[in-house]
Design brief:
OB fold (Dihydrolipoamide Acetyltransferase, E2P); 2 domains; alpha/beta; 35% helix; five-stranded parallel beta sheet
Length: 254
C-alpha cells in the first residue's frame, strides 16, 4: 500500500513527540512521517524540500500561526490537518472551510478518522481557495460576525457558497440538498445534522427533521398543529409540532 509522506509542524516538542508516537502506532499503514519541525520558517523550508502530501500543522507556532506558514507558500499541493487548542470560534471556521482539524490533546480515534478521510479521497489539489476561505472566516468570527462563505464537497471537488445565499437545507438520509438564491441547488454527501451543527449559530433553524431554514428568508408563518412557514422563494414547509415552541421563540428574538 502506498503511504502518504507527512511532516509535523508544532513549536511544542512534547506535543510533536506525542503526535509522532500516535501516528506511528495508529496510522503506520497509511502515513510515513518524514520529520517534525518547530517554527514557521523551518516548516516552510521542510515543505519546499521534502514535498509532503500531508502536513500536521499547529495553529499557534510561537509568535506566529499555521496561517502565517500557509501564506508563505504560493502553491499548496498538500493536505493539512490542523492541530489546535483554539477556541470554539476557530473550530467553527475550520468546519465552515472544510479543513480537517484535531483538538489538543489529540484523541487517537480522532486522528485515525482524520487520516482515513485524507487517504480515501482523491489526490490533493491546490487548496488555495479553501485556505483563503479559512483565513477569511477566522477573521470574521474574531469580530463575532457570521462567516461569509462555507465550503461544501461535491462529486467533482468542492463549492464555495456565500452563507447569505443559502435559503434552506433538506435531508435525504445521508445526503443533504442545499437550496440557494436564484433557484440553484446542490446535493452534498453530508447529513442534515452536520449542517445543523454548522449553521445553527448563524441564523439557521431546524424546523423539521427534514428541513433546516435560514430564518432571514422566512416570509410568513401560518398557525396550525405545528404550523408552516413560507419562504421568500414561495416554498411552504411544515414545522414539526415538537419544534414549534422553540421556533417561535427564536423568531421572536430576531
Amino acid at each position: 500500500m502506498h503511504k502518504l509522506k507527512a511532516i509535523i509542524v508544532d513549536d511544542e516538542e512534547n506535543a510533536a513527540s506525542r503526535l509522532t508516537d500516535l501516528v506511528e502506532k495508529k496510522c503506520h499503514e497509511n502515513i510515513r512521517l518524514a520529520g517534525s519541525f518547530h517554527s514557521v520558517d523551518d516548516g516552510v523550508a521542510a515543505i519546499k524540500s521534502i514535498r509532503p502530501q500531508l502536513v500536521f500543522l499547529d495553529v499557534q507556532i510561537r509568535e506566529q500561526t499555521g496561517f502565517d506558514l500557509l501564506q508563505k507558500l504560493p502553491n499548496k499541493h498538500f493536505d493539512v490537518i490542523f492541530v489546535t487548542a483554539f477556541e470554539k470560534y476557530a473550530v467553527q471556521a475550520f468546519k465552515f472551510s472544510a479543513i480537517d482539524y484535531l483538538l489538543k490533546p489529540v484523541d487517537p480515534d480522532d486522528l485515525v478518522q482524520a487520516v482515513e478521510k485524507i487517504v480515501s479521497k482523491k489526490p490533493p489539489t491546490n487548496l488555495f481557495d479553501r485556505f483563503q476561505t479559512l483565513l477569511e472566516n477566522v477573521d470574521q468570527l474574531k469580530q463575532y460576525t457570521p462567516p461569509r462563505k462555507i465550503v461544501v464537497p461535491t462529486i467533482s471537488g468542492f463549492e464555495l457558497l456565500p452563507v447569505i445565499d443559502i435559503l434552506r437545507c433538506q435531508s435525504d438520509i445521508n445526503y443533504t440538498t442545499i437550496f440557494l438564491q436564484g433557484g440553484q441547488k446542490l446535493v452534498v454527501a453530508k447529513t442534515l445534522k452536520e449542517f445543523e451543527e454548522l449553521l445553527s449559530e448563524f441564523n439557521f433553524f431546524r424546523i423539521h427533521n427534514s428541513h433546516l431554514v435560514n430564518l432571514a428568508y422566512i416570509k410568513s408563518y401560518h398557525k396550525g398543529k405545528g404550523g408552516s412557514v413560507v419562504l421568500t422563494d414561495g416554498k411552504e414547509l411544515g414545522v414539526s409540532q415538537r419544534r414549534k415552541d422553540a421556533f417561535l421563540e427564536r423568531m421572536a428574538a430576531l
